[in-house]
Amino acid sequence: MSKPLDYENLNENVKKCQYAVRGELYLRASELQKEGKKIIFTNVGNPHALGQKPLTFPRQVIALCQAPFLLDDPNVGLVFPSDTIARAKHYLSLTSGGLGAYSDSRGVPGIRKEVAEFIERRDGYPSDPELIFLTDGASKGVMQILNATIRGDRDGILVPVPQYPLYSATISLLGGSLIPYYLEETANWGLDIVNLRQSVAQARSQGITVRAMVIINPGNPTGQCLSIANLKEVLQFCYQNNLVLLGDEVYQQNIYQDERPFISARKVLMDMGGPISKELQLVSFHTVSKGYWGECGQRGGYFEMTNISPKTVEEIYKVASISLSPNVPGQIFLGLMVNPPKPGDISYERFVRESKGILESLRKRAQIMTDGFNSCRNVVCNFTEGAMYSFPQIRLPPKAIEAAKKAGKVPDVFYCLKLLEATGISTVPGSGFGQKDGVFHLRTTILPAEEDMPAIMASFKKFNDEFMEQYEDYRGYSRM
Amino acid sequence: MRRFVADLSRNLTSQRRKKLATCALRHRTCSLFSSSQSQSSVVIPIRFLNTTSVDPSMASDYSGTPVTLDTINPKVLNCEYAVRGEIVTLAQKLQDELKENPGSRSFDEILYCNIGNPQSLGQQPITFFREVLALCDHPTILDRAETQGLFSADSIERAFQILDQIPGRATGAYSHSQGIKGLRDTIASGIEARDGYPADPNDIFLTDGASPAVHMMMQLLIRSEKDGILCPIPQYPLYSASITLHGGTLVPYYLDESTGWGLEISDLKNQLEAAKSNGTSVRALVVINPGNPTGQVLSENNQKEIVEFCKKEKLVLLADEVYQENIYVPDKQFHSFKKVSRTMGYGEKDISLVSFQSVSKGYHGECGKRGGYMEVTGFSPNVREQIYKVASVNLCSNISGQILSSLVMSPPKVGDESYESYFAEKDAILSSLARRAKTLEAALNSLEGVTCNRAEGAMYLFPRIELPKKAIEAAKSANKAPDAFYARRLLDATGIVVVPGSGFGQVPGTWHFRCTILPQEDKIPAIVTRLTEFHNGFMDEFRD
């Protein structure tokens, strides 16, 4: 019997949208897990799920904010250091009724002020709290901005390939057009300005109005950190082509090399000075889910708008108000992230020790993984300069590609499923992020515990070598 | 082009329609949903923010940029949400003024009666819930002896139980996109205990409040402006806003003020037929029970008629049940639509039903946590897959909110250490709400020209005011809808913030405002006094 909401009469945009990070591989891995197989989930940047411990300080503060009656208990000092008590009182005083009240739809004003102060310290330029909106995770912020921008399928958004599929999925859901610009793998996933120009020209020739450009810096899944020169190029390009720049900077704390530290798009823009700095429209995104905090489950994030007109800001505010407010605990996590313990604070030493420990380990793991992949003869892996992922290129022999076709699967999906079944390592096939035709990748995170890494890389290598033996023919393997 | 299919049985002169349309275009002080064929229109929301001045120099600074009002998504421009609209912005300005110049007004504080936000007005959270949440936020203290001196034993036990359901006790990790399985199991048991019919944890999607779940369903249901969603008028403007944002059409059905905001199935049928004849494909029916802003609790018979109607007409029933624990009258009871359907013998194959619940209301009032869920029954597996897919793009809802949802659906039981204090807190809050509802209702009914149906449930009163002609004219000259004019005057004279009825929809020519019953009990007498004084003064000024 046909139902009122059937697959056939579902919104087409929903059917079109794809989100591989929790797609086929993940679902298969979950099935296998239920059957009792040990699975190593490296499909999503979810540090705490792989054993990373939460930082102590924010958890102490938030627990006190959840249960403010503790603050009156004479024994509270036995369990909570005095600076956490002071912080909890501070954040509670910024709210209008504690954690259980809807805040301002843009976020608690006092916390937005702290975010603005953080941005000013980081970049050296003042930031306006009125242009900072807190959101339930950066993803919600991205969706809100894209929703404001996309009017229909004639509106195009430039998205890097490979990209984090939140962008492709959201553009699909909103009925817009995704315009890919390819990053150059052989140049360390660098920006190819020629390709960028070609993509825009092609889109325009098809009657598409290019509205915005997305950059992910550090990159996901690719990990590259943009240079100042690159950022200037991007900003100039957006300015010349009348695009709003969407700067996904959620991995700004995850930097594993020293040649290219993180520099925000906003700082580069302000440094450029002149008309561009007053006119180029930019929205920058950040989160508590990544960095060394890894507090994915809190759903805390923000976006900062630059050179967006007050009336447009009003409209974005209006839409935010329909969902009333972002969750207040997540907002407090943001406040704590931009305002961590300072030297002299009781919790400072521990906080620094925990943070450094995490970052140093991530740096090591980035190297271990890159090296491990590169030790396989059919795998080429760019170094993970930043973010949380490794995105090796897997060269598959023609027989493997045929076998995949027979199984009705895209070749990298086929490879990843086999990898999963053999080793329990759950990755996301490169096709979920986009890649050049005939080139295959997989994305894994660098998040498994350091002590487990050697075993994981060994397990991968064993599988890969066996796979190659099975499918290789003696004329060599396919590059394209 | 804003359109919806409106009720065609009301009279509205074409002149008035033109005036309203001009108002919408020129001043953006009112928003209009009207189809070119309708003879009437329901004026729903008032323009959101203060748009008194458009600075031409500002326009020229941004006019060349990629994202301006001219190039922003028109659905964003068209949607409205009065609950945090113009009147609230004005109130905030007043509040700042009062801070700078105390004593500059005849009142010394702003009383926000515009939004169902209990804890912002002094309502205390349920201790047991906060104990468990604090422990789940900071699990490392669970093993310490000192912790037992700070927390009740059963909150520690519950925290352990919950954390055992979370892999690695990692409350900072993204969970399953539908929410943590163990918590969904708890919620499903809670639903079963409430209804007497089983619930499947796989039917539950935990979300950041009920609102995102509503948006998800609208996204799935609405393919184009030809798709219509039946909504009660008056309605909570999340629905009108969401329908607009998703490009659909709101099909109104009127609740009958004279019969306690009752719902006539024949009326529903008429609206459906009118919409269909206009080429609209009506996909779903929204029912808010208990009602917002209207506060009525549906009778079981009414609910059966609604289920039958949806089954027959092949509509998805979207049951907003977030106020299920807010019932203030002994002659009414909450029955979930799931229970009613199952009682009628209807199962998965008979009725497509989505039930929404939230941690924001009830006696717990945890708005800032953003916790809630939808229970989705009667859909095919491949539709369920699509719902899951959309949920997965946002990865998951916040974990603390998920935990809270499970606590709300499975609170302390008789015999638990915390039961007595839990029950005392809950009872105090609910009986206080019932008292405040009655007091404010009586006060409103005593005002000249004001009638107010009782608040059987939810958190609001929605009185109707007969505004004298002079007042309506004064409103016109001030370029305001009459109820917005009244609300503004009320704010300026008393500091009390209410939401004009046009924010919710009302029969054209009638005026209402929505006022919450949430200010603390000790403030209620002062509110009543100030409101009465203001109203008498207003009527003196404008009486015919």
From TrEMBL, chain A:
Its cofactor is pyridoxal 5'-phosphate. This is Aminotransferase class I/classII large domain-containing protein. It comes from Fraxinus pennsylvanica. One of its GO terms (molecular function) is alanine-glyoxylate transaminase activity. It catalyses: glycine + 2-oxoglutarate = glyoxylate + L-glutamate; glyoxylate + L-alanine = glycine + pyruvate. Residues 88-448 form the Aminotransferase class I/classII large domain. Pathway: Amino-acid degradation; L-alanine degradation via transaminase pathway; pyruvate from L-alanine: step 1/1; Photosynthesis; C4 acid pathway. InterPro entries: ALAT1/2-like, Aminotransferase_I/II_large, PyrdxlP-dep_Trfase, PyrdxlP-dep_Trfase_major, PyrdxlP-dep_Trfase_small. Belongs to the class-I pyridoxal-phosphate-dependent aminotransferase family. Alanine aminotransferase subfamily. SUPFAM superfamilies: PLP-dependent transferases. Keywords: Aminotransferase, Pyridoxal phosphate, Transferase. GO terms for biological process: photorespiration. One of its GO terms (cellular component) is peroxisome. Homodimer. The lineage of its organism: Eukaryota, Viridiplantae, Streptophyta, Embryophyta, Tracheophyta.
From TrEMBL, chain B:
Residues 169-522 form the Aminotransferase class I/classII large domain. Its cofactor is pyridoxal 5'-phosphate. Keywords: Aminotransferase, Pyridoxal phosphate, Transferase. CDD domains: AAT_like. The keyword Transferase applies. Belongs to the class-I pyridoxal-phosphate-dependent aminotransferase family. Alanine aminotransferase subfamily. This is alanine transaminase. It comes from Fraxinus pennsylvanica.
